[in-house]
Amino acid sequence: MLRPRYHDNWCPSWEGTEKKWYRCEDGIHPWRVGVLDATRISDGSLVALKQVLKSRHPYEAEIGSFFSSEALVSDPKNYCIPLLEVLQVPDDEDLTLLVMPFLREYDSPHFDTVGEVVSFFSQIFEGLQFMHAHHVAHRDCDGRNIMMDGGHLYPKGFHPSDGDMKPDMSGMAEHYTRTQRPVKYYLVDFGISRRYKAEDLPIREPQIWGGDRTVPEFRKSDEPVDPFPTDVYYLGNMIRKDFLNRKSGFEFMEPLVADMVEDDPSKRPTMNEVVSRFEGIRKSLSSWKLRSRVGHQDELGFIEAYRSVAHWKRRFGYAARQTPAVPLP
């Protein structure tokens, strides 16, 4: 069931009133092209409908269905977005609709503690390791294609097209922290992903540009490359850009990230090595460090002070209740 805005008999709710269209629930457009929210009638859950042209992305539904198969969907290391259903558009043989859980951007809302980010790193590392173990290269696993099942953080819901607002757009949506209600992250968008046979590995494939345009091996030549080290680069560069360069307190990730973004793909660690090294890093972090606040390098002084006071209040509460410093789903 689509929202009323997309019904045949829809009439803008602001017409004939003094309301501004952008303050009305039905005035907000979807935030991602080709993706629309809907409600699953059987249980009332929020889902996402993604349109896929089979001629352009012939493997997306196949790879998504593979990771959603009964044999793999229950594996705790499987962080690939599950496919709930694949719908064929009746009057267009080339067009399918993938039905998936409705997810949020991985950093929305902002991370509260270092431990929450450590949980994020742990899950996405294991998720890509899981894909590689099944001989699937994502080929576009930057920050845009990592999302979060965070609906339960918002006890009164949020608007699907503006996740910071209440469902009726009447004000800001209240939410819990990830420490209070742990979340699961997912790797999404298998449009340019590829699955290989074990006997064909290692593989050399023609280059396919994803959203990250900084891949060193793509910039040096047009020669076919092994896509698995490129995946490692994507994750490492996402952490470098979004955490090391924009937030404070993550110096402990610098050596691992530096190796993940090596210009020479052959010098990058495999995802097995990344997971193993990160486990050692995680064990070296004290509870004090894990419960510390995630600082943003562009914060103004008074905002930082306000957020710090609120954080310390939560921090003492977590410690008193013995809430795990690294929240895992």
TrEMBL record:
Gene3D superfamilies, per database record: Transferase(Phosphotransferase) domain 1
Gene Ontology MF terms: ATP binding; protein kinase activity
Taxonomy, superkingdom: Eukaryota
Residue span(s) of domain Protein kinase: 1-329
Pfam families registered for this protein in UniProt: Pkinase
Protein's name in the database: Protein kinase domain-containing protein
Species, as recorded: Neolentinus lepideus HHB14362 ss-1
